[in-house]
Amino acid sequence: MLIIVDDVLNEHALREFRAAYDHLPFGDGRATAGDRAAAVKRNLQLANDTPQHAALTALVHAAIGACAAFMSAALPVQISPPLFNRYLPGMAFGQHVDNAIRIDGDQPLRADVSATLMLSDDTDYQGGDLVIEDTFGERRIRLKAGSMVIYASSSLHRVDPVVSGQRDVVVFWAQSMVRDLSQRATLYRLDQTIRSLRQRDADAPEIDALMATYNNLLRMWAEV
Ligand code: NI
């Protein structure tokens, strides 16, 4: 499962980020990585003890909360605090799988879904592709500012070295109500189908039956 969502952050939010970002303290990104990931992680990360960090976190959480595609794909029961990462030329994050459990929030979180929200445009830097490997093969992700990629936390992935420019991203994780990836993918596809059908014909009688099926599957599979 790999989903790309555009316009998660609008122009106004992106401007707020850019205005704040140039004055903020970035430190070594290895502070929040597990042992093995830390060995391959070379980036900078916004210090989390600043007032700006709290304000930007609130901005990200509001944008995610308003993102119907993320809610549908992730079915989050808990969302981690975001990490604000910066990659300058030569920086990269080698192949790794994200830690299963994250303990940087108020309570431990099982990472089921990973997300990267772009603050830089893909034209702002060369190199720096996010490369995600999964059963579908290898996908190279380059997106415009404000777009987000959502993928299974079980996927191997890496960030190729940035060659020039600057790559700013927000990364975060969600624990899903539905732990099993194939069940989550089934619910996402069904939800998208219902939305599409409603757009075409809001009064279609099949909608009620499909919505009942969606809710009954969710009832069977969700843990809250
Ligand atoms: Ni990762």
Write the layout of secondary structure elements.
Layout: E1 2-5, H1 11-21, E2 26-28, H2 35-38, E3 41-42, E4 44-46, H3 51-65, H4 68-74, E5 76-79, E6 83-87, E7 92-96, E8 101-102, E9 109-110, E10 113-118, E11 125-127, E12 130-134, E13 137-141, E14 148-152, E15 156-159, E16 162-165, E17 167-176, H5 181-200, H6 206-221
Antiparallel strand pairs: 1-14, 2-4, 3-7, 4-6, 5-17, 6-17, 7-15, 8-9, 10-14, 10-17, 11-16, 12-13, 12-15
Helix pairs in contact: 5-6
The chain binds nickel (II) ion.
The site of nickel (II) ion has 3 residues, from loops.
Describe the fold and architecture.
This protein is an alpha+beta fold and 224 residues long. It folds into 2 domains: 2-176, q2cbj1_9rhob like domain (Jelly Rolls, Sandwich), CATH 2.60.120; 181-221. The chain is built from 6 helices and 17 strands. Strands 1, 2, 4, 5, 6, 10, 14 and 17 form an 8-stranded antiparallel sheet that branches. A hairpin with a 6-residue loop joins β8 and β9. The structure holds nickel (II) ion.
